[in-house]
């Protein structure tokens, strides 16, 4: 799979998310901000789908990246652009993509009320299970 996409300024998806965008993802991901996870994120961006939205200057402002376990993760929206429906649009695009490809997937989000409401608004439900941490090895 190599379907990295962003929504362009006109609201249509185009294939441009790649390892070049590793910086913003690494800076905003709770487990990022270090060289080890920078390499991990770069690998995810090179090998798995990532969808998002570009801002007026062409920089990513909202995104979700898939990990090797079919987990939608590393989702983030720049604070200035929140509450505009970007994450919902990206989530719908991801869901459509995976249904068309007949691929399993799931979203990993923090269990705060805002995230759980966002999942519910697109028809997803929280699973009553634990979470397992992946380890990266160099």
Automatic annotation (TrEMBL):
Residues 51-136 form the Glycine N-acyltransferase C-terminal domain. Its EC number is 2.3.1.-. Residues 15-49 form the Glycine N-acyltransferase N-terminal domain. InterPro entries: Acyl_CoA_acyltransferase, Glycine_N-acyltransferase, Glycine_N-acyltransferase_C, Glycine_N-acyltransferase_N. The keyword Transferase applies. GO terms for molecular function: glycine N-acyltransferase activity. It holds the Pfam family Gly_acyl_tr_N. Keywords: Acyltransferase, Transferase. One of its GO terms (cellular component) is mitochondrion. It is an enzyme of class 2 (transferase). Belongs to the glycine N-acyltransferase family. PANTHER family: GLYCINE N-ACYLTRANSFERASE-LIKE PROTEIN 2, L-COA N-ACYLTRANSFERASE-RELATED. This is Glycine N-acyltransferase-like protein. The gene is GLYL2.
């Amino acid at each position: 799979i190599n379907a990295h996409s962003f929504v362009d300024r006109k609201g249509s998806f185009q294939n441009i998310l790649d390892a070049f965008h590793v910086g913003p993802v690494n800076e905003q991901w709770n487990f990022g901000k270090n060289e080890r996870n920078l390499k991990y994120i770069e690998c995810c961006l090179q090998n798995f789908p990532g969808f998002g939205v570009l801002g007026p200057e062409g920089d990513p402002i909202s995104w979700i990246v898939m990990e090797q376990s079919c987990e939608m993760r590393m989702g983030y929206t720049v604070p200035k652009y929140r509450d505009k429906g970007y994450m919902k649009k990206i989530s719908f695009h991801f869901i459509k993509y995976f249904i068309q490809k007949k691929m399993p997937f799931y979203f990993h989000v923090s269990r705060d009320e805002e995230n759980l409401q966002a999942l519910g608004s697109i028809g997803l439900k929280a699973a009553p299970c634990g979470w397992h941490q992946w380890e990266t090895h160099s």
